[in-house]
Design goal:
Elements (H helix, E strand, L loop, with lengths): L5 H11 L3 H10 L4 H19 L6 E9 L2 E9 L2 H4 L2 H17 L4 H5 L2 E2 L2 E2 H12 L3 E10 L2 E7 L3 E8 L2 H14 L13 H12 L2 H4 L6 H9 L14 H7 L3 E9 L3
Antiparallel strand pairs: 1-2, 2-5, 3-4, 6-7, 7-8
Helix pairs in contact: 1-2, 1-3, 2-3, 3-7, 9-11
């Protein structure tokens, strides 16, 4: 049997970026044949992907990348919070955000089809699954474009990106709001909200015991007052909406995206 030297193990590790022990085991199984060991590890990776593929990924990490008139947010799910907080895993997620920005990939399928360090992203996930020992998957990609872009990533768990024009620092305040408020319905101003959603909300408010207890003539005005809560307020202290804030600081907001881990 061929001698499995440390230099040979290190060479395989540099080729695969897998732990030393896995590399040594692969070389032992293939009698020191480097190329055969690579194939052996690839087969193991595919098996690992199949083994863990059906498992839920409630945890995860988010990342963002800004530049060239675009901002992109990425979410990768994993099984445990331990992996979600791992620096190497988060670096992998960041590399995907950087790739999405460079390639213009704006969907999960589009990003999965790109190449990361010479390897198709979907295959890179298989390699990561083998390395980590639990299921991970690309959950979401949000890409926005504009003359100015900004973003905010909260602890690698919630990420928001915003595009528009004007001062990027002012746009970042909108990104902070999107991250914290999780606006729903998703719209940049009242006029953009689906009228069907508004009417449904009015119906729900009007049916509440609190409103029904009031004189019928007063109910429409009460409903309108309560409806204002349906539209997320940017600054609760000033009672200022995002629309009013944008006008005051001379920015425009043309689009935004938000991603958050489930756990």
């Amino acid at each position: 049997m061929a001698e499995i030297t440390a230099a040979l193990v290190n060479e395989l590790r540099s080729m695969t970026n897998l732990p030393m022990m896995k590399c040594k085991q692969a070389l032992t199984a293939t009698n020191g044949d480097l190329q055969a060991a690579v194939e052996h590890l690839r087969k193991q990776g595919a098996a690992a992907g199949a083994k863990f593929g059906g498992r839920e990924t409630p945890c995860g990490a988010t990342a963002m990348a800004l530049g060239n008139g675009a901002a992109v947010a990425v979410l990768v799910g994993c099984q445990t919070d331990f992996v979600g907080k791992n620096d190497a895993f988060r670096a992998f997620v960041q590399s995907l955000a950087d790739l999405a920005l460079a390639s213009g990939a704006d969907t999960v399928d589009a990003l999965n089809a790109q190449k990361l360090n010479g390897q198709v992203v979907s295959e890179a996930f298989v390699a990561q699954i083998q390395k980590i020992g639990e299921n991970i998957k690309l959950v979401g990609v949000k890409l926005v474009k504009g003359a100015a872009v900004a973003g905010y990533n909260h602890d690698g768990r919630i990420v928001a990106v915003v595009a528009g024009s004007g001062d990027a620092a002012k746009l970042k305040q909108v990104a902070l709001h999107v991250a914290s408020a999780n606006p729903a319905p998703v719209a940049l101003d009242r006029g953009s909200v689906d009228p069907v959603l508004v009417e449904k909300e009015k119906e729900i408010i009007a049916a509440t015991p609190e409103v029904q207890a009031k004189p019928e003539a007063m109910r429409p005005k009460i409903v309108e007052g309560k409806l204002s809560r349906f539209f997320k307020v940017f600054d609760a202290e000033k009672g200022e909406s995002v629309e009013k804030y944008a006008k005051r600081v001379a920015i425009t907001v043309t689009g935004f995206g938000r991603l958050q881990t489930s756990a």
